[in-house]
Amino acid sequence: MLLSTDPGQLGQKKDENLPNCFALVSEFHLAVAILTLLTVQDGTTSLYMSNGAAIIGGGQHQAVRQFNRKLLLLAQDLVQNGDICSEFPFPNSSEVFFYLVCWDGVRRRQDLESSVRQGKGDLAPLYLTVHELLSAIRAVEEGPKAPRK
Fold first, then answer.
1. CB neighbours of 86 closer than 8 A, spacing ≥ 6?
2. pTM higher than the cut 0.85
3. pLDDT in tens, 43-98
4. Which of 16, 21, 25, 133 is the most exposed place for a label (fewest CB within 10 A)?
5. How far is CA 122 from CA 8, 34, 74, 144, in A?
6. Are 111 and 125 in contact (CB under 8 A)?
7. φ, ψ dihedrals at 79, nearest 5°
């Protein structure tokens, strides 16, 4: 599991533009499930839902990779205020959790989803970019739209 494995064992190498964390796990509730979005510096981008649905391999698409990178760049400045953690519970229905997977351990940042959705707090840009990434994944999954006649 990404959250409990040494970065070297995962084949990750330090990137000078991502000095603090090499991966981000974002979690929050949807109407039907808990959503877990995994983004890794090598472009890996996967979406898992607690109801069993999953989309893996999103990082093979350029638009998804761009938002993956944007998320990880935003996460770099959030590390210093993160709580070091070794347990990884799901957020409750009103929260959003961000697990910053750093070279020296995992840190958790959390806030009320209603707050970040309104653009409040230092996690709001991360939350909004997560939704941009989800839109990019959705667009890839749906494929090109046929022209209207």
1. 4, 105, 106
2. yes
3. 999 999 999 888 888 778 888 999 999 999 999 989 888 888 989 999 999 999 99
4. 16
5. 30, 22, 10, 35
6. no
7. -60, -45
**In the chain, what are the helix, strand and coil shares in percent, each to the nearest 5?**
35, 30, 35
pLDDT tens string 109-137: 999 999 999 999 999 999 999 999 999 99
49: which strand partners?
35
Q: Which residue has the tokens 């590390």?
A: 79
Supply the pLDDT for residue 68.
93
Q: Give the Cα separation of 82 and 20 in Å (integer).
A: 12
Tokens of 21: 């964390």
Q: Are the C-beta atoms of residues 101 and 26 closer than 8 Å to each other?
A: no
Domains and CATH numbers, the chain: 2-141 (3.30.1560)
- Report whether 36 contacts 49 (CB < 8 A): yes
